[in-house]
Amino acid sequence: MTSSSTSGAPRSPDGDRGDLFDPGCPTRRLLDRIGTKWTSMAVKVLAEASPEEVRFAELQRSMTGISQKMLSATLQGLARDGLVGRRVEATVPPRVYYRLTPLGLTLEEPLAALREWAEAHMAEVDRANRRDEAS
Amino acid sequence: MTSSSTSGAPRSPDGDRGDLFDPGCPTRRLLDRIGTKWTSMAVKVLAEASPEEVRFAELQRSMTGISQKMLSATLQGLARDGLVGRRVEATVPPRVYYRLTPLGLTLEEPLAALREWAEAHMAEVDRANRRDEAS
DNA sequence: CCGAATCCATCAGGATACTG
DNA sequence: CAGTATCCTGATGGATTCGG
């Protein structure tokens, strides 16, 4: 098993060790997903395009620096989570369109709040870092 | 106010290639921090205690499963970012108190929004995952 | 009591090449 | 055009131990 999925589903079909950790925190599990390198950016791009669909190559262009592998993995993860939907156009060459599901759209709200905080305060965070580096 | 400042590119490995990647996205950098395993939980615990201070061992007890190393690293990171403050009581044995700074407190708002989304919708996400596993 | 240091397992994620 | 497969690296983070 090379990869047991990025968003590790509880792969303990039976009693692993019980409850060593506290997996009952949905926030942690959410952050495990949107906290990955490209996921939140994909949601943002798709949200901005919504309700229009976006093609694979178009997404790759919007997300500078992402590889096919990571884009594919990111979209797969979001699709598995029911946050984005796929539509394949059976042409030659084939075209695949992505869009946020209604559930994915609701995620955009708190994500936008986080973005606003980042744009408002990350400069101050950076300043704090500089101050600390001086020591 | 993003006084834009000198817009210091955080990590230019060596030669600045212009804009191959987009390091100007503060959201990514924010998620790189709060997306780590324990950071958001620490902020939550500290926010709930605010304006009271919390001791190291107390934090460790609240965050089930965390090691000293990770708690220390998490708090250091938050302190460097100016989100939490430390107060050392020079007793024997020494006691160290942590609390959110005003800046850290402002982060609690969007973080709480994310938490609400998680509690409201993660069950649906899980259901989507099950449905996908069936294939 | 606090946390720094070491060792070690795992994994995200980048580069590349190949299929349909 | 869209997606998969393989290889490889550095960062994440857990357990443990030492120091102040």
UniProtKB/TrEMBL annotation, chains A, B:
Signal peptide (UniProt feature, chain positions): none
TM stretches of this protein: none
Gene3D superfamilies: Winged helix-like DNA-binding domain superfamily/Winged helix DNA-binding domain
Record domain HTH hxlR-type: where: 25-126
Pfam families for the chain: HxlR
InterPro entries in UniProt: HTH_HxlR (IPR002577), WH-like_DNA-bd_sf (IPR036388), WH_DNA-bd_sf (IPR036390)
Keywords: DNA-binding, Transcription, Transcription regulation
Taxonomic superkingdom: Bacteria
Protein name per Swiss-Prot or TrEMBL: Helix-turn-helix domain-containing protein
Phylogenetic lineage: Bacteria, Bacillati, Actinomycetota, Actinomycetes, Kitasatosporales
